[in-house]
User: Fold this.
Amino acid sequence: MDKIHLENIIKSFFLGLFIGILLQFFNDTNVLFEYKIVTVLASGSIGFIIGFITEWLTAILPISIANSKIYFFINNLIALIITTLIMLSLVIIADGQMDKQGEFIPILSIVLSIICIANLFDYMMYRRVQQKLKTFKAMMKDK
Assistant:
């Protein structure tokens, strides 16, 4: 449990909220505003669950794959698989209320694309911090 990054789980919650808000723009049904709020909060909760499972599975990985590129790739892959499984299970629980291919595939594509972009952004921020650290170490070494 000490290898689980709580910050990433919290990021997943907010990413879930963002996805929930974004998907409300693609939803053309006429429902109460309160239901839309509940949907966004449920999306955030699902993001939290996905983040927790992803971080837990990533923490189990052996240290031999400690290369940052491999770590971020595996983390992204796990997040995509977990997200797909959870979304499929939600469709099954909802008893197929949406047209199987007509509505589910575009929504799944949007969600998985957002997750990939968020993970790529996270990796770029990691690389940026590492580069700044390298520059700082070189500057300290010169002093």
Remarks:
- The chain has four helices and no strands.
- The two ends are 39 Å apart (CA to CA).
